[in-house]
Amino acid sequence: MTPEPIPVPETGRRCPEPLYGAEFAADPAAAYRRMRRTGPTAPVELSPGVRATLVTGYDAALHVLRSPETFSKDSRRWRDMADGTVPADCPVAPMMAYRPNALLTDGPEHRRLRGAITESLGAVEPHALRGYVERSADSLIDRFAASGQVDLLAGYAQPLPLLVLNQMLGCPPEYGERLVEGMAGIFGLVDAEKANELLTRTVSALIALKREKPGRDVTSRLIAHPARLTDEELVHTLVLLIGAGTEPEQNLIANSLRLLLSDDRFAGSLSGGSLPVEDALDEVLWTDPPMANYAVHFPVHDVLYEGTLLREGHPLVVSFAAANTDPALAGEQHPGNRAHLAWSAGPHSCPAQGAARLIAAVAVEKLLDRVPDMELAVPVQDLQWRPGPFYRALAALPVSFRPTAVTTAVDGTVDSPVTSAAEGGRGPGGGGDTAGSGAAGAGLPTGDGASTSAVRRGSAPDRGLRGAPAAAAPASGWARLLAWWRGE
Ligand code: HEM
């Protein structure tokens, strides 16, 4: 039943703000400022002709996220999709169309699917996870260490999360490569339909393999979980984990590296005993959250919220980025205060926050360890952001540095299927098919600058970090950060 429209006081806006295109990508904060003028919600277009309401206020965001009885995640309620106003193949459909997974279900169904995820991810030891990240990071750094330049996005931040996830899921290398190919397709690099099919086939094959030969990995735990996920639910849960665990993670790593490489504040307070890497992560989570606008909800009936009619079945998109920078929060956005919404809030908040943060922190710390004198290769204001409504994602992060030797400190069991696939080749190594394998003994940066994997293995003095030519007087924030990291 659709009640008669409730009259809404006109306040001058009503022209939907486009959340696509170069202008929004270049300066989303300006769009959020414009939208805030007319209240905590505003009409937007996610792609041409795809209408939604963006929630820009912090309190309004919390209200939506914490009222599952009024705002549903089930996108089968999306009216414009159901009646054909929005075509099924519109560019934002892959991020919004219904699938039987935790992200897009409500109530008991959601709790069942989410419970299996939370417990399976929770069983991954932080120590093992650090090992996965360090080995993945080492294998990627080895690919560019001698060249003196790299696009940190394509060469590091992008492939690393998938390498780590492959290990968490217990993916044999050849499966890892196919997953990469599938993911690349989903993100628009090749035929999306074919890619989706490849991804589904690969994930199904992984499930079959783990049914036959379970390991100490997330896939095997999901299969064995008392929630008894069906094969279809297992496939969609794994695809969700791969999607949710890669793109936002790469953006957290890249956005944090951008900040550390361009902002002297993070090097300025090093002697004060603060933790600049953690501070940079906090700042990015407040000001450039990797997932900028998402948590799509559908009102289950018409709702009048602060003078605006939110129609049943009309998508409400929560702007974590706008909510975090809501002027009402002035003074809250400081390191250590983790009240930001970068992980969302309420029943669908990210179940992998601890792991996600750890992966990003270790990824940044590894670069500090191994790549001295890194500098942005272009002025920070020339860096381009990828257009799109959902992510705050750099298009590239080119850096230069003094070439440094490849270390053999890594045990060689992780190679980069991403790079291999991109090169059309096959990675010789693999993630191993059991969680925890090879992780023991991997070095764990402690944040005190004294304990690094390379140093502990004793191989670094002549090849890696300590063997690098002495840096010139630290000029950039990164160089000073590095000096602190080295304990100098
Ligand atoms: C920096 C990295 C990450 C960020 C910023 C992030 C952020 C988020 C956000 C904002 C949501 C809510 C989305 C929504 O309601 O529409 C979410 C949900 C989710 N995330 Fe993460 N995430 C990250 C990493 C990960 C990782 C590494 C995994 C798993 C390996 C993961 C798994 C999930 C899952 C399964 C959900 C759905 C939970 C539910 O609906 O109950 N995320 N994440």
TrEMBL record:
Amino acid composition bias (Gly residues), ranges on this chain: 424-446
Chain spans, region Disordered: 415-471
GO molecular function, one term: heme binding
Protein family according to the UniProt entry: Belongs to the cytochrome P450 family.
Name of the molecule in the record: Cytochrome P450
